[in-house]
Amino acid sequence: DLYHVVGDGTTANLLAILAGVFEQEMPESRRFTSRLIKDSGGLLDSPISNDKEYKGEETTPVDDFPWIWKELEEKAGYVTHYIEDSPKWGTFQYRLRGFGSKKTPVHSYGRPCMVAATQDEARYGKKVGCTASTP
């Protein structure tokens, strides 16, 4: 039992593992900022609740975090890969602004392929994990 929680949720804990920092130490990178709704008794309004068409950006502050894969590439010549188990909720895409589209964060980044496969499922009825409609 040598596991310690360093923050609230997956993002905070993976950020500590993959970048060696706390989110508060990095430049602001949240997709939204909450604000109090006037005369609501303390209710918060945040654009993420209305952000159904978030398309991302060419570069974001998340690109400049001190990711371990940058050091592995520069100092040891490693080829790096990063993928998650679901295109719906990316650890660094849901609450944070995600990685920019100008340059992938690692050599092999699986998220764009997973998102495209999910869109094929929605548009054409293909099942995720199938190629050319063949399981």
Can you summarize this structure?
With 135 residues, this protein is mainly α. The chain has helices at 10-19, 68-76, 111-124; strands at residues 35-36, 44-45, 81-82, 108-109.
Give structural notes.
By secondary structure, this protein is mainly alpha-helical. The protein contains three helices and four strands, in the order αββαββα. The chain has helices at residues 10-19, 68-76, 111-124, and strands spanning 35-36, 44-45, 81-82, 108-109. Strands 1-2 form a two-stranded antiparallel sheet. It has a two-stranded parallel sheet with strand order 3-4. The protein starts with 9 loop residues before the first helix and ends in an 11-residue tail after the last helix. The relative contact order is 0.14. Residues 47-52 have low confidence and may be disordered.
